[in-house]
Design goal:
With 395 residues, the protein is an alpha/beta fold. The chain has two domains: 12-34 and 305-393, Alpha-Beta Complex (Aspartate Aminotransferase, domain 1); 49-296, Aspartate Aminotransferase, domain 2. Helices cover 47% and strands 14% of the residues. It is built from 16 helices and 13 strands. The protein has helices at residues 12-22, 47-56, 70-81, 86-89, 100-115, 130-137, 157-166, 189-202, 219-222, 224-232, 262-279, 285-295, 298-329, 336-340, 352-362, 382-393; strands spanning 29-30, 93-99, 120-125, 141-146, 148-149, 154-155, 172-175, 205-210, 235-240, 252-258, 345-347, 364-365, 371-373. The strands form four sheets. It has a seven-stranded mixed beta sheet. Strands 1-12 form a two-stranded parallel sheet. Strands 5-6 form a two-stranded antiparallel ribbon. Helix 6 (130-137) links the parallel strand 3 and strand 4. The protein binds pyridoxal-5'-phosphate and (2S)-2-hydroxy-3-(4-hydroxyphenyl)propanoic acid. It holds the Pfam family Aminotran_1_2.
């Protein structure tokens, strides 16, 4: 019956993570998958989340509504848009609890496929690979706009603007507003403003995918692009709590659609609920309660904000430490990129062969594209990584 079924090649990042686990070497270092680990190499359990867990206990588990937990949805809106955003006071944002950031992008794609079909979807080159897959699954063709400039190891802003301008009016454009995966480079404020003018003028439909809020500058500052855009025009915003709540396996995310007015938002919310109903009916409760409890309580939210800051500061410190350690070993290797990039990832510019050499020779695992997850660095492994990096860079 299923003889013709093709083998699945696997997800390259998840497969690499499995290879890492199977690697017997003691001094191996995992800088592949986008997971934050602390200075001991462990995925932290945040104190705020633990406190929420104790509060919610295990009570009855009825179905949540299709749109998710009310406390959670309210928390998403305030966190993403800010409590005093005009779109929020106008009640023209439709928000649902989703199954991680992946679920948010997936439902966004399903919603757009039904209500604004036939358009081209533009994603950055490079991007999180699933952007192509999720929009293609929904029936769209995907294309790319330039984003990474290899020579300067920064954003190819001219290339990006030209491509967005040349695209057919009303195209769907996926933007990562902060801590871009995989490059670690973001638009500055002036570039955000310029691209906003262009996107609004072209009538493009923007889908923001914000998976790392709080890992750039702060929870508030990281949302500025989205907030300013949403004050100007309708858009969709997918957000993930996997990283900033360290709740990978609970699958917590949100999808918000900023609408023209309250009536439109109510109808859009209805269609999002229908998309959920047809896909998985309703989101999971424990994750919803955990995040909703933290975001809905002033003390817990303040505690969580400090915990996000701790994660961010550690990643920044590890970038600096790696740059210093490399500098001690060599003056030839360019380390500017480590300091210009932010968030969980750095695009090193290493080639696939160099990445393979790092892995095979030294047990240092990066993604084939040269992406390094800086959250996997710690004081104990930075010297090893610096030495490998210098060795491989100097051939
Ligand atoms: N979007 C981007 C840009 C990501 O890097 C990720 C990675 O985790 C996701 C979405 C998916 O988030 P989640 O793990 O919450 O599904
Ligand atoms: O890019 C990453 O490493 C994270 C984790 O299919 C991830 O986004 C990787 C692959 C995947 C889902 C999540």
């Amino acid at each position: 019956l299923f003889g013709q079924v093709e083998a699945f090649a696997g997800d390259p990042i998840l497969s690499l993570n499995d290879s890492f686990k199977a690697d017997p070497r003691d001094r191996k270092v995992n800088l592949s998958i986008g997971v934050y680990t602390d200075e001991h190499g462990r995925i932290p359990v945040l104190g705020s989340v633990r406190a929420a867990y104790e509060r919610i206990g295990f009570a009855e588990r009825p179905y949540l509504p299709m749109e998710g937990h009310a406390l959670y949805r309210d928390g998403v809106q305030k966190l993403v848009f800010g409590a005093s955003h005009p779109a929020l006071s106008d009640k023209r944002i439709a928000t649902i609890q989703t199954i991680g950031g992946t679920g948010a992008v997936g439902i966004a794609a399903d919603f757009l496929a039904k209500h604004t079909p036939g358009r081209t979807v533009l994603v950055s080159d490079p991007t999180w690979e699933n952007h192509h897959g999720l929009f293609q699954r929904a029936g769209f063709k995907t294309a790319t706009y330039p984003y990474w400039d290899r020579a300067s190891r920064s954003v190819d802003f001219d290339g990006m603007v030209k491509a967005l301008d040349a695209a057919e009016a009303g195209s769907i454009v996926v933007l990562q507003p902060v801590c871009h995966n995989p490059t670690g480079v973001d638009l500055d404020e002036a570039q955000q403003a310029a691209v906003t003018d262009l996107l609004v003028a072209k009538g493009h439909i923007v889908v923001f995918d914000m998976a790392y809020q709080g890992f750039g500058t702060s929870l508030e500052a990281d949302a500025a692009f989205v907030r300013r855009y949403a004050a100007r025009a309708s858009c969709l915003v997918a957000n993930s709590f996997s990283k900033n709540f360290s709740l990978y396996g609970e699958r917590c995310g949100g999808l918000s659609v900023v609408c023209r007015d309250r009536d439109e938002a109510e109808r859009v919310l209805g269609q999002l609920k229908l998309a959920v109903r047809r896909s998985y009916s309703s989101p999971p409760m424990t994750g919803g309660l955990l995040v909703g409890t933290v975001l809905g309580n002033d003390d817990l939210r303040a505690q969580w904000t400090r915990e996000v800051e701790t994660m961010r500061n550690r990643m920044d410190a590890m970038r600096k430490l790696l740059a210093e350690e490399i500098r001690k070993l060599s003056n030839e290797v360019d380390i500017g990129f480590l300091l210009n990039q932010r968030g969980m990832f750095s695009f090193t510019g290493l080639t696939e062969q160099q990445v393979t050499a790092l892995r095979e020779r030294d047990g240092v695992y990066l993604v084939g594209s040269g992406r390094m997850c800086v959250a996997g660095l710690n004081e104990a492994n930075v010297p090893t990584v610096a030495k490998s990096f210098v060795d491989v860079s100097q051939g």
